[in-house]
Amino acid sequence: MAKLFVVEQDDGATRFPFMRGILTRSLQDAGLSFEDAYAVSAEVRKLFEETTEVTTAQLRSAVLECVAQFGTAVVHRYQHPAAPPGTIVIRDAYDHTSLFSREQHRRVLESSGLSDEESNNVTTSIFRHLMEKELEEVPARQLGFLTYRYIRFSLGAEAAQRYSALVNYFQDQRPIVLLIGGAPGTGKSAVATEIAQRLAIVRIQSTDLLREVMRVMLPERLLPVLHRSSYDAWIALPGETDEDPVSDTRLVAGYQAQAELLSVPCEAVIGRSLRESASLILEGVHVQPGMADKVPTGQDVIVIPIMLAALNPEKLRARFRGRGERTVYRRADRYLDNFDSIWRLQSHLLSEADRRQIPIIVNENRQQVVREIMAIIMRALLDRLTAKPTEVFI
């Protein structure tokens, strides 16, 4: 059966392939079961098996003919698709449309620093107001300004200013480079993922992954320190290795030797993001406290270093055991066997972070950690960005 193309009726030039999956979905929206919708799509395709091109009008006529057997109600719903009750369409400045999502709206408010209860109350009030006005479509700018005004009058100017600063970030896309460091087991990856969702950041880079790529490219005989873990990289350093326990100086030297090797791809990742004005979260044990100094100066970028910590040794051991149970390849025993080295490596990282006045956040509750980091980010946005209440993000 030859490939079938659909020609747009209005201009006669736009062509796109006929896709059964899309037609099946449209028929499901009209009220057919998946089985019936798929059968109709197959029947329509068979009607044009001897041709390679059909107009949108011809295709629509064939679909209506095939769905007539299911009654006039289905035919009407297919001809006049309606949005579900309570649906509000948001149109942005670029004429793109999307459905108003209360969950997304509420999460943006939470990200700006409102509590769960405050965010829920604001979103509920905004949605109720739009429904009472019987609005089916709202400009994004109007929705954002309405939200700003509601926050200002109900929660105060400071809360409204934070929301406005976050709006400005989403609108202007001035990039943020968030550097999340910490010893193994401090929850860097999980926290980075949550922050990325809050700020719609699509670029998350783990230094562990960069290390794996470098290991493939550079064999162990050339760079043995690269092929060790961060907490036992000292074994690959020249000199005696029979210290028991290894000295803090040698332990840190091994870590730094490996981290310096990783700084090259890390700087490349950061540089690529800056050239494309894209926000980035770089996380990993190799994100040293001094990495923020390596971000090119003069860039229109907000650099925010964070150091995560686990200050309860028993909880950190439990976290390693849980990691081993959830993911087989990340065996808990290798972390537990080297726990003393990991703990001493963390002491070094925290001391350096404290010396450089980098925020240290104790990770005992992920949601609390996310709130603390978002508060730091919001302060940076307020310091660096000009609030524009009429610029809208939803």
Describe, in plain words, how this protein is organized in 3D.
The chain is α/β, with parallel strands linked by helices. It folds into three domains: 5-79, Ribonucleotide Reductase Protein R1, domain 1; 89-155, no CATH class; 176-384, 3-Layer(aba) Sandwich (Rossmann fold), CATH 3.40.50.300. The protein contains 15 helices and eleven strands. The chain has helices spanning 20-29, 34-47, 56-67, 72-79, 102-111, 116-132, 140-155, 157-172, 188-199, 207-217, 248-275, 313-326, 332-337, 339-355, 366-384, and strands spanning 5-7, 15-17, 53-55, 89-91, 97-99, 137-139, 176-181, 204-206, 280-283, 302-309, 360-362. It has a five-stranded parallel β-sheet with strand order 8-9-7-10-11, sandwiched between helices. It has a three-stranded mixed β-sheet with strand order 2-1-3. Strands 5-4-6 form a three-stranded mixed β-sheet. It is globular and about 85 Å long. The model is unreliable at 387-394 (pLDDT under 50).
State the main characteristics.
5-stranded parallel β-sheet; Ribonucleotide Reductase Protein R1, domain 1; Rossmann fold; 3-stranded mixed β-sheet; alpha/beta; 3 domains; 394 residues; globular
